[in-house]
Amino acid sequence: MELLLIFGSFFIAAFLCVVLTSRRVIECISIVATVIALVESIIISLKVGSVKTYVPFYFFSIESFEAIVMLIIAFVGLATTIYSVQYLRQETLKNIIGFTRVKQYFILLNLFLLAMFLAISANSPILAWIAIEATTLSTAFLISFYNKPSVTEAAWKYLIINSVGLLLGFFGTLLYFTSVNELSGNSFYALRDAALHLDPLIAKIAFIFILIGYGTKVGLAPMHTWLPDAHSKAPAPVSALLSGVLLNVAFVIVMKFKIITDFALRDASFSNNLLIIFGLLSIFVAALIILTQKNYKRLLAYSSIENMGIISLGFGFGPLGIYPAVLHMIYHSLIKSALFLSAGTIFLKYSSTKIAKVKGMLSSLPITSILFLVGIFAITGAPPFGIFLTKISILSVGIKIHAIVSIVAMFLMAILFIGFLKHASSMAFGEKPSEVTTGSSEFKTGKENIWLILPPLALLALALFLSFYFPRFLLDLLNAVTISYKMRGTI
Amino acid sequence: MSIVFLQFLSGTIFLSIIFLHLIKKNFEAVIAYGIQSFAIVVVLMGSFFETNNFPLLLLILVTLIVKVIVAPLFFIKLIQKHELTFSVSSYLNLPLTLIVIASFTAVAHSQKFSSLTNIIPAHFALLSLALSAIFISLFLIVNRKGALSQALGVLSLENSIVAFVFFAGLERSPGLQMGIIFDIFVWILIATVFVSMIYKHFGSLDVTSMKHLKE
Asked: Which of A263, B43, B137, B204 makes an SS bond possible with A195, Cβ 3.0 to 4.6 Å?
């Protein structure tokens, strides 16, 4: 029932956005849909905490890992929808978009959120694939929202690379079915039960296709090339959802196949090694580009590649690395979304995403720039934010198993920290440019809109809160994820 | 369905992709894709005659409408609207393209992939050809500079995977396959709009003219 309410609320919201002509009503309906999704996600998570597996109806089931990601989708979804309302109003005031665009935006946003909830709760790998493909299709037009040549280019790149990646993922998915007959069902459970009968060589080939296919969506290097373009060209709230949420949804699906592969091979070293290779490569690619980066949204996008690499390393290091990796995923989602939302406010003020054009941020946007700077410190792993602890934990687990990998990763993380600090300080300080942005009087006078501050503030505050205290039910979910991977043979 | 006829269909799919590599006219490329999709529909029909599964018949009808009729019509209208008679060239010249295609075909038939091509030992030749089709479709997407060719490459890749899946007996329930077809249909709509947008912004479908993201 809860899941049905989530799906229904987004579907109805998208439909109403199509038929309604009042902007205010469209905005309200979209916010109400995300509030319903958040409440229902909390209820589902509480249920998963007590019964371990929530199975509402055929083709859908939610376990601890899915419940955590579902909470992330719901919370970030709500924050970005609230932010979107004011962000789009400011863009309308600047004559960048009209009502039709706003309408289109909220239709696609609701469909995007619906597709992510479908993907995370789907128990059938085929249905999960359909839902993930639906996220690509719903976001393609969100990325090309501004209808400019550079944006069209980014959206085309996104569409083609992700479609090819997902088709390879689809091929990999179907290869797992060589051990399952039609009567056994189409679920991940059926695949898991039949994994021992799967030809080990086919399991290896299938997992490579899965990792390349869904890894494209995760943004793992070398399949990451679409990510910086798409994340930097999309409207800021969409970038927040793409970076903070969608990558995790795809990652969870990769992990579901990892369990099946480990069962089939009776050993986790094959999948673990692949995760370590792709993870380290992702951190390397991000570090390579960070110092010379000229665009602050691309900077954040590369940081997402780095962080997905760190999460992959955590899972690749085995059971001890899983707990900090899942924690890292939670912190990264909240902080990165907050950073993208702050970046959106900076863009509204400066009308540019070029680092060189953003100077004196502290004096022109004091609250937003503080949020942005705190976010930068948090995402690079500065204490007291939880990412500091998760990075240390993942590396300390890794140093016992893969010492060289951990040392290289630590060195690359240090480069990333320096790069981020260099760019953030150049944006925060210095003489603010004389040109005043057009738009609302608030933006001209430098007064910041509370609705552009609250969503990123709430996300950062939650990340900080969770760095010191974890509610019991969340802790239970986290423990359940680690235990389930241990039980399922991720050794 | 006899193995010889299946081999003919498999060969048709494979040759249509090679044809997509060789031709210069967009219209011919779209027709090649239509023929390839029709071969897929015939493969599905064979499966229906063996199983008498009526939901499968519905799936066949939808596939026929989406892939054989709607998709080519959309692309042909696009070609006519923007007068996109000729497609742009490829990154590799013709001899090199043929060498790469031959290499991929050899790799797909090699021992390296025998675990995949022997899923049903009697279908070794079919599966090898379908796997080759997957590889050369991927190469088509990478090698062609035209946005329309890339879109057709993605759709060919999907057709090749569907062919492999049927030859390997891995097809899933028609309900799930219907979901996949729906995704493909939406993908075709979106790709058509994007191809139009690319032409509007860049005055050409040559993806090498898209240089706005180079920073």
From this structure: A263
* Calpha distance A356→A376 (Å, rounded): 17
With contacts defined as CB-CB under 8 Å, which chain B residues touch A150? 212-213
Interface of A with B (CB under 8 A): 124, 126-127, 129-130, 133-134, 137, 140-141, 144, 147-150, 152-157, 159-160, 163-164, 167, 170-171, 174-175, 177-178, 182, 186, 199, 201-202, 205, 229, 233, 294-295, 298
Closest CA to A380 of A341, A425, A415: A415
Selected residue with higher pLDDT from B174 and B144: B144
- Only one residue has tokens 């309200």, namely A28
Domain extents in chain B: 3-209
Phi, psi angle pair for B61, to nearest 5°: -60, -45
Q: Who contacts A52 (Cβ-Cβ below 8 Å, separation ≥6)?
A: A63, A64, A480
Rounded Cα distance, A82 and A91, in Å: 15
Q: What is the dihedral of CA B146, B152, B154, B155, to 10 degrees?
A: 170
**Strand extents, DSSP E, A259-395:** none
Closest CA to B171 of B48, B69, B15: B48
ipTM: 0.92
The predicted pLDDT at position A491 comes to 42
SS3 track for A2-58: HHHHHHHHHHHHHHHHHHCCCHHHHHHHHHHHHHHHHHHHHHHHHHHHHHCCECCCC
User: What confidence score (pLDDT) does residue B186 get?
Assistant: 86
Q: Given a cut of 70, is residue A183 above it in pLDDT? A: no
Say whether A156 and B190 touch across the interface (CB within 8 A). no
User: Is A428 in contact with A355 (CB distance < 8 Å)?
Assistant: no
Mutation to test the B interface, candidates A168, A174, A355, most B Cβ within 10 Å: A174
Alpha-carbon Rg for chain A, nearest whole angstrom, is 21
At A341, list the tokens.
Answer: 């939302």
3-class state of residue B25 by DSSP: strand
Q: How far apart are CA A122 and CA A187, in angstroms?
A: 9
Helices (H), A317-351: 319-350
